[in-house]
Design brief:
about 70 residues; three-stranded antiparallel β-sheet
Length: about 70
């Protein structure tokens, strides 16, 4: 799995999930439940990950949707 985005912004995560889901890209949000458990301290960020073979397509889709500035370095 390749990490595309790491953030505490649940609205951003939701929007990214919608873009990827609509395009049929498989993804996984890591640390989703752990970030809830840690409360509002904000030290544990959620990570949006995709399979390596779908990473470039997912990056392109997210750039086109205006989320290019949120992407982690390849």
């Amino acid at each position: 799995m390749i990490e595309l985005i790491r953030t505490n912004d649940i609205v951003l995560i939701s929007a990214v999930e919608a873009v990827l889901r609509e395009a049929g890209v498989h993804f996984f949000v890591a640390d989703q439940h752990m970030s809830v458990l840690e409360g509002s301290a904000g030290f544990l960020q959620r990570r949006v990950c995709v399979p390596a073979d779908e990473a470039e397509r997912a990056r392109r889709l997210l750039r086109e949707a205006g989320f290019g500035g949120e992407l982690r370095d390849a």
